[in-house]
Amino acid sequence: MKQKAYQQYLDSYVAICPYLKADELNFIRKHLSITEFKKKEFYLKYGQIQKEMGFVYQGLLKSYYIDNQGKKITISFIDENSYASDYPSFIQQKPSKYYIETIEPTTMVNLPYKAIQQAYHNYKNFENYGRLIAEQILLKKQDRIESFLFENAEERYIQFMHKNKNLLPRISISDLSSYLGIERQSLTRIRKKLIQ
Description:
By secondary structure, this protein is α+β, with helices and mostly antiparallel strands. It has helices at 2-16, 22-29, 87-92, 113-122, 124-150, 153-163, 173-180, 184-195; strands spanning 33-37, 42-44, 52-58, 61-66, 72-78, 83-84, 99-102, 106-112.
């Protein structure tokens, strides 16, 4: 399983940066590690500094913060072939403002922050990879902001369904309503309306 997970991780690099060379990929491979989590375990907690970038080989996580009233506000779901990270905190090596918790048993492939910085320094292609990943993260965040600016609750739910069909059976109504920024009862009404 370890070698298969590593290969899937390296394949994700090549999918984004097809011009990566064998020595560059070997540099990454030798710094990788695997961590396994049970359901409802934390990958990252508020106040922690994330020392490794985690790639989801198998499983599902959610990222959230706790507001002033003590309510959990879900900001993202992280499934297979995605990175689990508070990205701004990670690149600055500052304490996180978020929690990243498993929804399902999860296997992560980890690459240490120091190895990433070394790869940027030693290999030009990794700088390109880092830029492309940063652009993807920025676009996702922008899409999320604009969904709250320009869409109502029903439209946000429909968009989520179209983009994340595989996630719907794997996440709770509570987590989904928190992510969409609506009350659970409102989401239930929207779902009933769309079924009819």
